[in-house]
Every structure is written in structure tokens, then in C-alpha cells.
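Page 42, continued from yesterday. The earlier attempt failed because a stray header line got pasted into the input along with the sequence. Redoing it now with the clean sequence only.
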Amino acid sequence: MYKQIIRPLLFQFDPESVHHFSFKSLRFAHQVPGIPQFLRSKFTIEDKRLEREVFGLKFKNPVGLAAGFDKNAGLFKELSSLGFGFIEIGTVTPKAQSGNPKKRLFRLMEDSAIINRMGFNNKGVDEAVKRLKKNTDVIIGGNIGKNKVTPNEEAVNDYDYNFEALFDYVDYFVVNVSSPNTPNLRALQDKEPLTRLLNHLQNKNQKKSKPKPILLKIAPDLTESQLLDIIEIVNTTKIAGVIATNTTISRTGLTSENKEEIGGLSGKPLTKSSTDVIRFLSEKSNKAFPIIGVGGIMTAEDALEKMEAGASLVQLYTGFVYEGPSLIKAINQAILDKTS
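This time it went through. C-alpha cells are written below.
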């Protein structure tokens, strides 16, 4: 129904407007008696064989929603009823910011892809906290970044503020230094500044009575030498793991007319490069840390390939937009079929 009726209708309109409309529609639907139960029955698979324990957390299934969809933690409960095992909110910044000028979100239909240059548009971490205080049972990841106006030399202060604000309300943290849409942000992936940032957060973390897992989200455009640095940094800072990968700045092989739009590319063109990064990290580190695989998961087979490459969990974004919530169920069913 989604691909045959709903998606063709939604795709007639501006992508960002559709995103906000979908949010409002899902929120409204959950206020109608019986709808939340119906959605759970249609899309959720409850099975002990799907449960995963990763970096000390127990996930009811390994399929999560990637950051960028629910930036302000406004819809995590409703989204979880579609079958997700966990929801990652953000990227949040200390202060609210409007992001980059519109138009900033583009569908590449011929390539089953999306280009975005949103620029960490969000209402600020304190607004997200207000909503997260109402959470009771959804595993939440907090994806944190810096404000656009904050120079890289002071970026640690932004990440520190986010960390302290969210600490009591998320289950794990994701340090985002890999978005291509905030000027100079990716420079923080360099070995020295990244080690300094992660060590700072880990020092704060270890002083808590119950430290939270901290993960690093990396770009798919890193060289093998840079990926080896990432492995060393994870081992040195003792963070919990890596999310591979964010969007790419590559435009190789695209055919859509708007392929040259500036921003990060996600979707099918990212499938192989993301999986290759996962496999490289897993093999070269001897599976020393968990990896969450994200990037170009458009089918259940794509998710299984990422798990076979070394991912403990997977996340959806563009595949969720193109395929709808049935993709979540298809992945979980494929995992069950493989284990039976």
C-alpha cells in the first residue's frame, strides 16, 4: 500500500514539506483509538531470537532509525510502533538553529537516493530533553553536534553541553563529526582533534555513577589510512563503538538531473561503500568493538550483508523513506529466516 499509493502521492510534493506532513499525520493517527495497536500488529515482530545485547544495552530487535529523521525527539514513541528496535534522535546542538537555506532536501528518484544539506536544523538540546522526559520504554540514542557558529577550536564545549543535558534521558550517545553540511565539521575527524574530543567526553562519562556508551559516527569517504586511525582512536579512547556511515560527498554513478546539488548523499548509491567500511573496520580491528551499520539499506538483503560484514545493529533512513515501514519487518523476518 505504501509504495503503490502513499509514496507516489507524497513524492508529488516538496520533500521537506512532506516530512513535516508525515510527522503530523503519524502523531494524529496515534491519537485515534486502536491505531497504535494496529500499526504494531502490522509491522512489529516480537521474537526472542531478534533480541541483541550490544554495548551493555538490550535491544528488542537490531533495526533502528538513524539520526536526522526525528531531530527534536518529537515522534520517537510513534515511530517505535512501526517496528524499530531503537530510535536515534538529533543531531542536536546546544542552541537552536534554523540550518541552511531552503531548498535543502532533494529526491533522486532514478538513483533511489536523497541529497540533503539541512545543516543541523533543530530546536536545541534543551527542547529535545523536554520531550525525552516522557519516554518510558524506547531505547534512545542521542546524536550530538556543534552549532554552526562555534569554531572548531571551541567545539568540545558544544559537545560537552549536549552530553550533560542529555545524559539522564538517552541510552547511548553518538558523536557526529562527519556531516558534510556544517562548514569545517569534518575536520574534527582528524586524529588529534577527534582524540581530544572523545577523551574529554569519556573522562566526563567515567565520572558518572553509570556511564553511557559513546559511539562515533564516521563518513564513508575516509581513506584506509584514516580508517586505521579510527580503529586506533576507538582503542585509545575506549569508546563503545562506531556508526558506519554518514552520508557521502561522492556523486559517482548518479543519473538523476539534480545529482550535482550540494550536500550529503544517502540511499542506494551508498550501499556498497558503507558495507565496505564496515567490513574494513571489523576485519582490521579483529571485531574489537561493535559497529552499527547504516547507509543504503534499501532491502532486507542489504541489511543482512551489513551484518555479515560485521555490523551488530543496523539503521534506516532513506530506505525507510522509499520503502516504508514494511522494510523494518522484512529485515527482522529475514534475520529470523536465516536463524531458523
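Notes: The chain has a mean pLDDT of 95.
Reminder to self: strip header lines before submitting.
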